[in-house]
Design goal:
This protein has about 230 residues and is α+β, with helices and mostly antiparallel strands. Helices cover about 40% and strands about 25% of the residues.
């Protein structure tokens, strides 16, 4: 008999996740979801299923939700980041605008961070982005500080520091989306020497909620980047 429980860590909107789980499980298995700012721990009771049915269910879960699954046990995003970076002897730097140091704080709160974390820069103003990360004033003027282009240049600025194997950057509007047209709009850049990707989100919630969710999103994309670099799946 396989394990009586399937455990997964999944990044994403908890309401959308529960809707997907209800469709996949169709009432065949009880499940539990513990959610914190889009970081979800899912536990599915498969004790009543035969081994082959459990295998089929695991395949269906990964087929439907695989791109959002980042671990198969109840570790936090920051713990998984540290684990992977230490495993592959890589180091990361972060540059934060909208998250204001929360990514760096999440990383250094985990034991072993000193082995893998190089630097955390809070570059809130345009001047700081240009001076510390070589973001072009022309890019800032043309696209504004909250843009895909600026997030990309923030990442490349960190990668110009040869000691960073990976780089993460955030820029956005933390205001509630109900109070400002672009409120909750966040760009997250993640990259290494081979490629930089930028992801756009429109998060709901108050200023602190947006910043917390954006922090988790940045850590999630860092995990996916590291796994992709080494063709590793947790």
């Amino acid at each position: 008999m396989l394990n009586n429980e399937i455990k997964l860590k999944i990044f994403g909107d908890p309401n959308e996740l529960e809707s997907a789980l209800n469709q996949i499980l169709n009432g065949d298995c009880p499940y539990f979801v513990d959610s914190h700012d889009f970081d979800n721990f899912v536990s599915i009771d498969v004790s009543e299923l035969e081994d082959e049915k459990v295998r089929q269910l695991e395949q269906t879960l990964y087929s439907s939700l695989g791109k959002f699954i980042y671990f198969d046990d109840n570790l936090s995003l920051s713990e998984v980041c540290i684990t992977l970076l230490r495993l592959y002897h890589k180091k990361v730097g972060v540059a934060e605008s909208v998250t204001g140091g929360k990514i760096a704080d999440a990383i250094v709160s985990i034991s072993g961070a000193s082995d893998v974390f190089n630097e955390g820069l809070v570059c809130y103003s345009n001047e700081a982005k240009a001076l510390n990360l070589n973001v072009s004033p022309k890019t800032l003027m043309k696209f504004t500080a909250v843009s895909r282009e600026v997030a990309s240049e923030m990442v490349r600025g960190l990668l110009s520091h040869s000691y960073n194997d990976y780089a993460v950057a955030t820029t956005g509007y933390a205001e509630n989306c109900n109070e400002k047209q672009n409120g909750g709009l966040v760009y997250i850049g993640v990259g290494d020497e081979s490629r930089v990707d930028v992801f756009a989100y429109k998060f709901k919630g108050d200023r602190q909620e947006v910043r917390r969710i954006a922090t988790n999103a940045a850590l999630f994309h860092l995990i996916k980047k590291i796994k992709g670099s080494f063709e590793y799946m947790g």
